[in-house]
Fold Alanine racemase.
Amino acid sequence: MSIAVIEVNRQAIVHNVEYIRKIAPNSQLVATIKANAYSHGIVGVAELLQNKVDYFGVARICEAMLLRQKGINTPIICLEGFFPHDDIVDLVDFNIQSAIHSKWQIDALQSSPLENEITAWFKLDTGMHRLGFNLDEAKTEFYRLASCSVVRKPINIISHFSSADELTSEQTSKQLELFDQFIASIEDKSLIGKCSIAASSGTLAWSQSQREIVRPGISLYGISPFNEPIAELRPAMTFKSELIAVRSHKKGEPVGYSQIWCSQQDTKLGVVAMGYGDGYPRNIPENTPVLVNGRRVPIVGHVSMDMIVVDLGIDSQEKPGDEVIFWGQNLPVEEIAKYTGISPYELITRLTERAKIHYVDR
Ligand SMILES: *Cc1c(COP(=O)(O)O)cnc(C)c1O
């Protein structure tokens, strides 16, 4: 059965972890597995990597709790921190480390009756301007956090790059400088724990940013954070389905909703069990390719909720049951990103529950 399958090659993920270790030999590794491990299956990927990485990074406490419930004992950092309605007790009960990015979180920790300590990752805003303490308030807030009895010392420090995928941007060096300035400004060095600022693009392109800990996400799965695929990474995901019908089609006849495409010649059309209900994007340009038995053919007409039509050509020998690959080896998701204008990050995370994950080792 291979209808709308997310095939995940575990050995590719292991290879990518080993490659990142080689690129950042002096750094510990947070494997970022938020958003269901970028659709690779959070539990499956955590089970695979639990003894191969130093930490897991997630965005939501519920993701971390799921991992604990599945028996994962690796340290877990909630990179988005706890939320206003989260129960801080869960951090202790499930042994979850948390980013601390706002004054209200320090207030909550200060007034918490907890007896056990929480491991905190002080989040500094060095220029992303999304989450984190502003530089003018950061030092005061860092010391305030350090004075909370429920917060374990030393305190780790994190920040995040806005533009590390732009290799000629000055922003990354600027952010790194502000990061270092902040760390230098803390007089009591015994309060400073591990420092981390690099995700995939920082780790791969800005080696001076690796520091004690790197936090790769997309590259673990073999996908480049830049525009072009990286030869040393192995893509882990093959997103595929199969033909459910092969039909003769007459020249001049349209296909699908709104008749947006008409065949210029007699041809054979393949109907694939795949649609935007599985997470394949609906709005794609004409000629976006798929692989049918390893051969590139174009998608024609609108993508429907459950089906996609491809133009197999008049000489096609394909038959129902034949495999159709939407991205994977020989058709990198980076290339589909170029066709669709949708980043690889979004293409893979938008896959839906109907698409089933199958693990393979090869
Ligand atoms: C998502 C995320 C990462 C991983 O980013 P990639 O670009 O996928 O490597 C690292 N750190 C933080 C804080 C994140 O939110």
Notes: The domain at 237-360 is CATH 2.40.37.10 (Lyase, Ornithine Decarboxylase; Chain A, domain 1). The first helix runs from residue 10 to 23. The radius of gyration is 24 Å.
